[in-house]
Structures
1.
Amino acid sequence: MLYGRANKEQVMIKFSEFVQQTTNKKLEKLSDHAIYVQLLNYVKTLAANKEKIRLNVRFTTFLRNF
């Protein structure tokens, strides 16, 4: 299902389906801590699939002598 994302070519898996695939348990059966861990893994997985934006930016720091 698409959730109004900019990258509409890739289909994003639902969180409940992600949990089912990774733990072989339903979301309702997990503890709060286990849900939190799975949510972190879910976000990490989605971020890994995201295209990285590279910018050619230079930062200059000016140091003043007082």
2.
Amino acid sequence: MNLTERTQFEEAVGVTRTTINRWIRGEKGWPRPDNVKRLLAILTEEQQQEFLVLARKDPEFWEQLHATVSEEPANLPPLPPKWLDSFCYRLLRLQRDTPKPYRQLTGAILKEALTRLESHPNTGLEIIVATCMPPKDGKVRSLRASVGMGTSPWPDHQHTLNSLMGIESLAGYVVTKGHGEVIADLSDSSSLQLQVERATDAGSAAAFPILTQTHGTAGALLALSTQKNFFTEERITMLEIFADTIRLAFSETQFMSCIELGVLPPWDVQHTYFDSFRRRVNDAHQKALREGASPIHSEEQVFAQIEYELLQAGDRMEVHF
């Protein structure tokens, strides 16, 4: 920082050079909240986040700052919720200590998300992770609903899902657009008419892409509620946080940059293909053994076959969305 920049900095924050030097040497406590508001206003977004991470290390100052930000939220960047630090720490340890952490990490994140989002015992909630299928001719053509967890009427344990989603789905829509979307009332014909994965009991839905700016998109996080208008601003923010944290479950190779989703049939058509899924996997497994090949990828091969068949069926359908 040159002399001119330093002078501008001092004037913007409203403190003397002596005070800033004492902050740097650790001879003076944290800046007053009013000074912090002015400080954050002139920092870049990256510098703001670095400052907030440091501030959290002092509980007393953090409480004071948090109260100040809550009074004037429009003037400061949003602060992460207090529970997020310990939760992310647990996820990082799990990622470090687990050889193939996808299922363990997604399970931990879905469980935490259900706890944070649920507000009433009579409100059913399901959260689904949809992942990009392996590319065909260099392009991702569909998403696989890989794992889910919910509350009644949905299964309350981590469960595997066998279905595919294309551009006609809410998950496919947010992956294609690159931003989250909420459908407050699924019965409202004036809202986006997108499929939400067998959601016969759902009243509202929300989804966010799982993405990074450098590596692309790995899929989407989809949430369904039996209650209409369930996804308030607070819940939408939390869901976006979980879509960000679930990136830890994916390797870099699972993020795709070339995505061109096709149209897929609804679940009442898809299930006629997936009803024979296990039999087809077993047949592929036995065929590989007979031919002296490895059967380890039999399930992925059958999924790719079903994806192809469903894309063909989707091409023959007249779909409006």
3.
Amino acid sequence: MILWPYICKITKGKADKRHGRTKSPPSTPAPGDGKCSLGWWSYGRYCYYAYNGKVGYSWPEARHICQEVNGGELASIHSRAEVEFIRNINYTKYHNVWIGLTRDRSYGWGWTDLTSLGFTNWAPGEPNEAFHDGDVGKENCVEMYHDGTWNDNNCVQKRGFVCRHRQCTFTSFTLRHA
């Protein structure tokens, strides 16, 4: 009997290679158990990637990059602690960052990963734009400011972004010889 430990393999896509980090983030301990790829940060049961380079991306472009790289999604945020964690990994501060909150077809707000919207952190006076059906140029997408508060903004604005996906889990199997 042979027992082999395995971890799921996460393959980096082309978009991740062109968005490499150049600096180290501040040393802020984060919860998590380290089951994330290089360049991703562990927090709770998820891995996070903050793109914070000088070149920004529209919300649809950012979402596409998150989905292309490790099958993630723009980050959904469910607590004040998660806001602070994301603020710490967005350390270069070139841009505000897109998160996965967007207008849904029922004129409300919803996370792209379909998790529930129980926590919000709107900046004072936000959200302040009406729903514009089918027009990604209006304020139907949400960015997070450097202070952690949220703003509805024009989806074609160029921003950084934060991706999130579930951590891999360690598994093992037994190979039995006949």
